[in-house]
Automatic annotation (TrEMBL):
Organism: Rotaria magnacalcarata
PROSITE patterns: EF_HAND_1 (PS00018)
Superkingdom in the source lineage: Eukaryota
Protein name according to UniProt: Uncharacterized protein
InterPro entries cross-referenced by the UniProt entry: Auxin_embryo_med (IPR052957), EF_Hand_1_Ca_BS (IPR018247)
Amino acid sequence: MVHLIFSEQKLREIKSDTVSTSVAIGFPLQSIEQCLRTNTPPPFQNLFAFLPVRSYGFRFILQADFEIPASRQDILNGNEWNEWLRDEMSQLLPDAYDSFNKLPTILKDIPSASSYFQSMDSIQALKYFLKFIPITNEVDKYFHGFIQRCLTELREKIKFPTRKDNSEEEIEWQLASKCVIVRDPFILKILSSNILSKYCGKYFLHEYLYDIDEKILLLLGMEKLNIHEIIKIIKKQFLIQKEANDGSIEQISQWLMCVNYCLEQMKYLDNNEDDTIELKELKIIPIENQTKLVSTNEMKIFFPDTKQINFTEVDEKFIRLLNDLPTVKLELFDYIERNHVDRLEEIKELLKKFGIIEKRHGEIYGLLIKPIFENESKWKTKESETLMMYLLYVYENIYQKGYQHNKDFDMDDFKTIVQIKCQNNEFYNPMKKTIHLSLTDTSDGTISKIFNTNNSTYMSDDYLNYIKPQEKNQWFMFLEKLGISEFFKIETILYSK
């Protein structure tokens, strides 16, 4: 039991005829063993004004000189004296915590105490004390302010056992504000206590307290693992690796699972803009044909699985084109599927939050083909076959399927940027240089009989290797829209005398 005794001078300021009074808090000890073994809370207790009044939702006994009506079934609300007593009680629980810290020593000094009491340690004493912490929705609203003040005082005092790496026996005691709740053994295996304390100044709550009501721990100032802390750790870890090019697939997948765990624990909404920005800035994405890790803030990145594309069938000839997109390494998904298959879909959803996108027609043209054709320094670095596939892709997947009127594609714009392979193995834009169909392309070959000049530029025959015979007319119609015709164009050239 813990008492608070008030000075006569202080009392007279509230109640002039009062010389002394005290408030006390008591904790029944007979139920310690049952409560700890069965992980159940102690029963509710009555509030006392020398005699029992009624239960106000406390599991400890609260005694004070409250003023009560004749029925003795309640304490008087709106009573200045009662409110003063209530407001002065906030030190009771913090003082009781100090007493519980001494409880194991006190019990060991009692010869008649049971063997269970004799063997009680400081963690068991703390766990029993925590079962008395009141939760607001259990307690009469008259005492809500009292609870909040008690919790505020306790947050500055109460300490919890935290775990150390590879040691169940070695314990450090830390304030609740320094403790993080993680119950997932897989995450604890990935994220060491040393890393958490080094970069965040936080510690993992010891597993001995996993059976404590999480609401109580959070009320006392503890936190779940925070996404911002994980991001901070990841940035620090990869900063150590200089160019961030040494991150193994195993390590990357583990960090992704940590991030996903945090998001689930924090229950962030999908549209939380601040968190989305942080994720997109995180250089943790491995992409094909590159050793350096990247972020989606730097570039658009695609999923590797072609089954996710909205195509009825992925043509073999376009695999080169699809591989030209910045794509998450397939190895990452293979690793997760082999080792953590139950988390694979979660990680795919997480990567969507990072900004990883699926390969769709509109995105492939808008994010790959168009930007490359618009930039001479970019398209000139591409292989001849790849540039040919760009044109064939637009023909088969945009023009033939009627997407040329889609808001993401404009034929008039496309013909000003497209590069056409010609028989001299050079690429030209049909709006800047007159390009004719190859003499072998024409329907009857009569042009070859009439014109056979080295002064004209002809489209390469290589494209026809990918065009079915029955589609030639449609192919020619497509080329005509780009300014390439089977008929010779007559150019007017002015000569000055």
